[in-house]
Amino acid sequence: MAQYDLTRRVAPQLDRHLVFPLLEFLQERQLYPDGEILKAKIELLNKTNMVDYAMDIHKSLYHTEEVPQDMIDRRVEVVARLKSLEESAAPLITFLQNPNSVQELRPDKQYNIQMLSDRYQIGPDQIEALYQYAKFQFECGNYSGAADYLYQYRDLSTNSERSLSALWGKLAAEILMQNWDIALEELNRLREIIDSKNSASPLNQLQSRIWLMHWSLFIFFNHDSGRTGLIDLFFYDRYINAIQTNAPHLLRYLAAAFVVNKRRRPQLKEFIKVIQQEQYSYKDPITEFLECLYVNYDFDGAQKKLRECEDVILNDPFLGKRVEEGNFSTVPLRDEFLENARLFIFETYCRIHQCIDMRMLAEKLNLNYDEAERWIVNLVRNAKLDAKIDSESGTVVMEPTHLNVYEQIIENTKALAGRTYKLTHQVLEAAPTPAAR
Question: Could you report the per-residue pLDDT of 105-115, keeping only the tens digit for each?
Fold first, then answer.
């Protein structure tokens, strides 16, 4: 399944610290030789300040208790630099650790800067030192301390570029600490800034959106409302355009989110068109499953792709998250995906055939006959489908449910109104502001 591994495409769009969880997953799944993963970890660690971790990886890779002298020298440098930055930021850190002092701060940043200067002799140099100290803490792997200091820096800094960099850093720290609620808040805050930066060049905005979507994968596949949030972000015009332009591999995650999110079925038809448009730049079993089913009506092909989808999900760092339940280990998204994919097959098959042989349907669903019969009975009962099951002949008979002419007009009008609203919104966004005129 290494041919479907997206790590080489995803990693360049991530902060190097965010790549470590992906490598841990790949090592656990044994998709690559252990030595390759360890070498990749050391290569990443050489560009961070996590020297102790690098030493441990070196010992594991080369089966030795000795480490190179350059690692020992590097550790001495890191400790000295950390101490120096801490001393530079000490006056401001002392102030921020005092609850009574912090109460003097106001939402007005200019007031805060003047107050710190007048009462505590804390100036721009100490504020800059706080940023550098927080960044160094992050590079050392102290994500909790880095997140706190970066948050406090943003409350004091008037440098918009530095503040934006601090927000990216805090988002990465919250992801690495698995604080998914806070990470989602930071993600939304960052999205607002990116989408409102009219002064940024289109190319910079495109790259920022690409980064944001890649970082968001950690959040959306761990947060309770993540699948809905992923569709809201990725399928928004500016972002789906960015995907098609520069990151078509993200279609895998959007496709998976559509399959497991029943409430977003109305948008699925539009997404299928995107899959068709991008099939020459990117495809995998998950996107091909939807294409087989909804474009080609190839049920045998969909059945084959569904089996491959399970393997892709189990070996994907975002989709294959495992949950321990007692002595059992489950992959919730895999289970949801297979259940909903079978429902997609059943619904599509029923639209084409009025009388369905359950043995044949069981084969299409990758279930044995008894499992398929129970699954279909429960589905018909729970979804209140207009269908009859004949156990003796082993068939399901579907009643025709064609929309009458009035219902068809209403449905088409709804779709037209939605497209008109989207087009109007795009025109208004593109129009120059009064100031620009």
Answer: 888 888 989 99
